[in-house]
Design a protein that fits this description.
The chain has three domains: about 35-120 and about 215-275, Periplasmic binding protein-like II (D-Maltodextrin-Binding Protein, domain 2); about 130-215, D-Maltodextrin-Binding Protein, domain 2 (3-Layer(aba) Sandwich); about 280-495, MetI-like fold (Orthogonal Bundle), CATH 1.10.3720. The chain is an alpha/beta fold. A five-stranded mixed beta sheet has the order 9-8-10-7-11, with helices on both faces. The protein has a three-stranded parallel beta sheet with strand order 4-1-5, with helices on both faces. The protein has a two-stranded antiparallel ribbon with strand order 2-3. The chain has helices at about 5-30, 60-70, 85-90, 105-110, 135-145, 155-160, 175-180, 190-195, 225-240, 245-250, 280-320, 320-335, 340-355, 365-395, 395-405, 410-440, 450-460, 465-495, and strands at about 35-40, 50, 55-60, 75-80, 95-100, 115, 120-130, 145-150, 165-170, 185-190, 205-215, 220. The protein is about 60% helix and about 10% strand. Its main location: membrane. It is found in: Cell inner membrane; Cell membrane. Pfam families: BPD_transp_1, SBP_bac_3. It is a multi-pass membrane protein.
Amino acid sequence: MISSFSVRLCVLRASVVLLLALVAIGAATAAEPLKWGADAEGGAPYIFLDPEDVSKTKGFEVDLAAALSKAIDRPIEFQQYPYDGLISGLNRGDIDLAMNGLEITPDRLEHVRFSRPYYVYTLQLTARADETRFQTVDDWLKLKLPVGTLSETAASRYCEKNGLPLSTYDGQVEPYQDLALGRLDAVLADLPAAVAYARSNPALKFIGDPIEPGYYAIALRPKDEELAKTIDAGLDSLIASGELRRIYEKWGIWNADQEGLQAARSADDFLKQSAAGFSMANVFSSLGKAAIVTIQISVCSMCLAMLLGLTIAICRLYGPMPIRVFAVVWVEFFRGIPVLLLLYVLYFGLPTILQALGLGMTFAPSNIVVAIIAFGLNYSAYEAEIYRAGITAVPQGQWEAAASLGMSKKLTFKRIILPQATRIILPPVTNDFVALFKDTSVASAIAVVELTKQYQMLAKSSLRYMEIGLATAILYLVMSIPLGYLARRLEARWGKSL
């Protein structure tokens, strides 16, 4: 029989074990790190890879996250996340907070709970040092010159609102590079980025005073109100202690505008306006302009590809041995490398090489011209193989019959062989043309605002992916279906209907 003392001892032990388990669980929960989403590809001075140790990141937001972690007594761990997907990733639960120069805007307020602001930003216009056409922002607005900026930012919205020719980039380095190369006339970006990439560059200069003040804040899920209050309290303590100012001074981005942070309590203190109305008419207008760019690139690229492809096919079939080898190398090379790599090499690499050779800015084509060349070269390899197959499919007896009539080989090819081969190659060439319409989306990597890029910009700014996606799909169908219909009519007319 078990004594009462043994029972009490067992109960005591169980209680102690349970208490220790609860304490351990509570400690583990309290120490669970917050996942901070940001894009290290964005560049300085926000967050970027440390050049001395690429396994680490640095930037003023990295320092801010470390200071905030101490202030709220909870670990904050960086997680790489694409900038344009931060809001979606936050609401999906991939990350707990987003801090990456996110501006407080009415459309974002519909989907996230912003913390109290941690930085007052302004937009800074930058031009080349030898620029004489405009000396102020007002002069620049009147001229409506091509301008570059980051996509999905206050600067891009400001340029769109003022009807400026706009090139958008995913990184902060590229627009300033293109400005120095003469591809752009100006760059409009947040002041911290301008300080990091333009202030110390002797080839560039600031134009006028900063404009359009706005506010960075940390984005959290609306349901995480307790966490948001904790973050707000942590930011309050950093501002009151002067730690926030010390971080900003370290990175050279402290200015008089930041004095206003002390009095601010929430995002609503800065933003007292409602979200802009969603208009499908405006969406179709913007998508229509981007569709024109898509058509322009597709048509010009396909014309270049067909011309080069036919030339390469003829060289491979009828040229001397060195020319045949060259044609084979051409096909294998351009068919074997990604078109994205070709875009980067032609757009960013070629001007750099020419500069290194002392040729200066003699060749710095626009992004649309580079896109046409890149797609033309890439597709020429495929067209060459299609033409070669079509030409060789024409029976050898056609050559012999033409020769018996006294026709030269050149005339035979032009009058007899090529027309018959055209009927054979038309279907695959049409397929390539339709595919090219869709492949032009890759051109957004060099700041071409084509149809898919415009969809991404509109959808991510409004978070209305379905409606705008449907409108974009309709435009792609409007472009591609008539092309297929035309191809079928031509095949029927030439005696080879489907």
